[in-house]
Amino acid sequence: MNAAARKPDHVYLVDGSGYIFRAFHALPPLTRSDGTPVNAVLGFCNMLLKLIEDAEAEYIAVIFDAGRKTFRNEIYAEYKAHRPEAPPELVPQFALIREATRAFNVPAIEIQGYEADDLIATYATQAAAQGHDVTIVSSDKDLMQLVGDRISLFDPMKNRKIGETEVLEKFGVAPDKVVDVQSLAGDSSDNVPGVPGIGVKTAAELINTYGDLDTLLARAGEIKQPKRRENLLANADLARISRDLVTLKRDVPLDVPLDGLAKQGIDGATALAFLQQNEFRQLITKLQARLGEAGIKASRGGARTENAKSGDATVQIAADPAAFSGTHELVQDEERLVAWITRARAAGAIAFDIETTSLNIIEAKLVGMSLAVAANAACYVPVGHEGKSGDLLGGATERPQQIPLDRALALMKPLLEDPSVLKIGHNIKYDLAVMRRYGIETAPIDDSMLISYVLEGGAHGHGMDELAKLHFDHDTIKFGDVAGSGKSQVTFDQVPLDKALAYAGEDADVTWRLHNLLKPRLIAERLTTVYETIERPLVPVIAGMELAGVKIDAAELGRMSQDFASRMADMEGEIHDLAGAEFNVGSPKQLGEILFDRLKLPGGKKGKTGAYSTGADVLEELAETSGHPLPQKVLDWRQLAKLKSTYTDALPLAIRPETGRVHTSFALAHTSTGRIASTDPNLQNIPIRTEEGRKIRRAFVAEPGHVLLSVDYSQIELRLAAEMADIQGLKDAFRDGADIHAMTASQVFGVPVEGMDPMVRRQAKAINFGIIYGISAFGLAQQLGIPQGEAKAYIEAYFERYPGIRDYMERMKKFAREKGYVETLFGRRCHMPGINDKNPARRSFMERAAINAPLQGTAADIIKRAMIRMPGALQDAGLNGRMLLQVHDELLFEVPEAEAEATGKLVKKVMEEAPLPARKISVPLIAEIGTGPNWAEAH
C-alpha cells in the first residue's frame, strides 16, 4: 500500500476530569478494607478498560488537571474561584486514579500551570498537523473550539460523536467562532464574566453578523438595540479578558511528546497487582479471563458489574456509569405496576413525579406518575390520558390503554405512605399537595431541588432543566417539546403516550441522579442541618398552606375597582387641565413631552430611545423641587392604576370555584437568602405603606365564625444586626424595650429623647434600616431629601457611635470575597457571585448584598423554624386555626373566633422561641399580634 492510501493513525485523548467525576457520582460509596474510598477508582478502571478494548487507536493518553491555579488566574483572579472544593471522599482517589491509568499502561499527562484542556489542545493540534485523526473523549463545551476536519469529540455519556454539525447546533457558529461566542456569553460555571445581558444565542447572532469579536467591538456603536449596544460598549474589556480565558493554548511545552503516547498492551502483572491492592475482585476475574485469551483487545462488550462487600452485605453496583438511555417502561397494567412497586420497596427509595393538567394544585387532575429506582431505570404509569396514544400502541385510539385512576392510586398509596421507602422529588411540594387531594400523604420525602438550593443558593437556578445541564451536561426534554406552545399547546392528558413516557420517565430519572449526586455533598459541606431541620420539614407545611388558600371578598374588590376607575378618570381630567392639553397619561413618551417640552420643567433627560425619562424617581424629584402639581398628580394616578390592574381586577380571576379561595404558590428555592416567595398570584407585594394599598387587604377575609390572626416579628433584622454585629448599646435598648429609633437619634445626633422632633427620629430610622442594607450616602440623601454631604455625615456619626456595625460590614465583605458566600446564624450559605467582579457597579451591588444577606437569611431561617413547629403546636393545644400566608416576617392564620386569644398567645410563643434550641439569641425577638375580620384590621 502506498503512503497516499495509508489509513491515518488515530489519537485518543481522554479528559481525565470528566471520567473521574462521572465515575464518582455514578457509583455509591465504596471503600477498601483499610477504609480508603475507591468508588471513583473502580468506575474509572472500568471506563478506561472499555476504551482500551473498543478504541481502534494508535495513540492514547489520559490528560489531567495538575492543580486549581493556572496562568488564567494571573489574567483574571476570580477564574474558577467559586468552584467548590472536591468532596473529601474523592480527594484521596485522585492519586489512585493516576496510578490506575499507568497500571493499564496508558500515559497519565499533567503539567503545572496549565489546564488539561490546554494539553489536549496542544496534542490535538500537533496530531492533526501530522495527518492523524484525533478523538477527544469528553463532552466539555470548551473543547469544541478544537473541532475540525481531523479533530472530533466523543461524548461518552451520550455515546455520540461531536463534529462541526453538533458544534453549530450548540453554539450557532462554526468551531472557529466558538471562542468569540464564549467571550461574549461568558461561563458562570468557570466564572468567565462575558458581557452582561448577552447569552449564547445573542452572541452567535452578533458574531454571524459582524464576523468576529474584534470587528463586533469596533462597530458596537452601530448596534440598534440600546441595551445591547450599551452593554457591549461598557464591557468590551470584559469580553477581551473572557477571550483570553476561554482560548485554549495550543503550544504548551510538553514533557511527553506525541510519540510518547503510542498505545501499549496491558502489562497483566502490573494491572492485576493494582486491582488486587484495591480489592476489585470481579474486575480481577474478568481481566484474568481476558488476558488468558488472545489478548485484551479480543474482549468486547458484556455486562459490567462489581460486587463490593461492605461487612456482611454484598451490593451489586453498576461499574460503567450510565449515560442517559431514554429507554423507560410504559406501565399499562396492574401486573407491571405491582412489579415496579415491589422493586421500589426493595430499593428503599424511589424518585417520584406526577404529571397533571395544571400547575394550580386545586384544579390539577392527575394524568400519570413516573418512578425511578436507578439511573435509566424508570417507568411511567398513565392514569388520565384522553388524547391519542401515539406510536407505542401501533396506531391511534381515542383513549389509550391505562390502569384506572382509582385502582392505580389504591396500589400506589401504601408505597407512597410507607415510612421505610424514601420518596424523592424535584420540587416535591407540588406532588405532595396534589396527592393529598387524592387522599395520599406522601412521606418520608427528599427534594433534590431543595438540596441543590441549600448547597448553592444564589449561585444559579435550581430547576431540573438547569441542574441537568449543569451537572450532567444533559439537555432535558422540555414541556413544549411534548405539549406544544402558544395557542396550540395542549394539557398533558392530550399528550400521546410515547411522548409522555419520554418526558415523564426522564423527569424521574434526572431526579434520581440529582439526588444521588447532591445528597452526599450535604454531609461533606456541613449543610445537613440546614436541609434536615429547616428546608425539608417545611415542605409539607407549605403544601398545607397552599391547599388551604385564603378567602377573598370579590364584591369588595369589585367596588374598589370601580372606585379606582372613577377616581382615575377624574384625575386624568385634572392632569389634562394642569398640562393644558389632552394626552395619554399612561404613555411615558407623551408624559415626558408634556413635562419637559410643553411645561418646561427642569431636569429633563432623554434616554437612548430619545424619549424623556419619567420614572417614579424623576416624578418624585419634580414633585419636590419644581413647585408644579402635575408630577405628584401623575404619581397618584399611577398608584391607582397599578392597584387596579394588579389586584382589584386580577385577584377575583384567581379565585378557584372549587374552594371560593385564592391559592398562591410559595416558591421555596427562589431567593438567594432563603426567603420564601409567592407567585400566581403574588400575595407578598401588596403595598401597605399607603392608605390605598392597605385597602386591598380589606378584601382578604375570614370564613363566617372565624377571624384572621396576624403575627409579625417586630424589627427582626435590626435586632439581628445588633446580635450579629454585637452592638451592646442596641442590644441593651432592645432588652429594655426602648424606642430604638428615638434612642439612636439621641445617641447619634445628641438630642434628648423627650420632646424629640419626629423628623429627627425619622432620619434615625432611615439610617437604622438603611445601614443593614449597605445604604450609601447618595441613597440616604435621596431617601431623606437632604444633601449628600449631610447624609454622609449622618452615616459617619452612626459608625462612630456604633463602630461594631462598620466592623460587621467589613467582616462580611471580606468573608464573601474569600469564600464566595456568606452565612446565616444557622449555617445557611448565601452565595455572592460577582463579589470579586472587576466591574465596580456589579461588585458594589454584591457587597451590599453580602452585608444584608446574613441578616435577612437568618430572619428567614427563624420564621421557617416557627412555621415548621406551628401545625404540631396547634394540634397539641387542641386549637383549630390554620396557617394561610407567610409574608416575609408575618404569618397570617384563620382561626375560630372563640380560639383567637389562645391561638394568638401560642403563635407568639412559638415565633419568639423559634431559634431555640439550635441557637440562643441574646436580643429578644418580639412577635406582635393582631386580629380582625379582614387582613387590614388584623395587621
TrEMBL record:
Residues 693-899 form the DNA-directed DNA polymerase family A palm domain. Pfam families: 5_3_exonuc (PF01367), 5_3_exonuc_N (PF02739), DNA_pol_A (PF00476), DNA_pol_A_exo1 (PF01612). Single-chain monomer with multiple functions. InterPro entries: 3'-5'_exonuclease_dom (IPR002562), 5-3_exonucl_a-hlix_arch_N (IPR020046), 5-3_exonuclease (IPR002421), 5-3_exonuclease_C_sf (IPR036279), DNA-dir_DNA_pol_A_CS (IPR019760), DNA-dir_DNA_pol_A_palm_dom (IPR001098), DNA/RNA_pol_sf (IPR043502), DNA_polI_H3TH (IPR020045). This is DNA polymerase I. It is an enzyme of class 2 (transferase). It comes from Dongia mobilis. Residues 328-523 form the 3'-5' exonuclease domain. Belongs to the DNA polymerase type-A family. It catalyses: DNA(n) + a 2'-deoxyribonucleoside 5'-triphosphate = DNA(n+1) + diphosphate. GO terms for molecular function: 3'-5' exonuclease activity; 5'-3' exonuclease activity; DNA binding; DNA-directed DNA polymerase activity. In addition to polymerase activity, this DNA polymerase exhibits 3'-5' and 5'-3' exonuclease activity. Residues 6-264 form the 5'-3' exonuclease domain. One of its GO terms (biological process) is DNA-templated DNA replication. The keyword Acyltransferase does not apply. Keywords: DNA damage, DNA repair, DNA replication, DNA-binding, DNA-directed DNA polymerase, Exonuclease, Hydrolase, Nuclease, Nucleotidyltransferase, Transferase. Its EC number is 2.7.7.7.
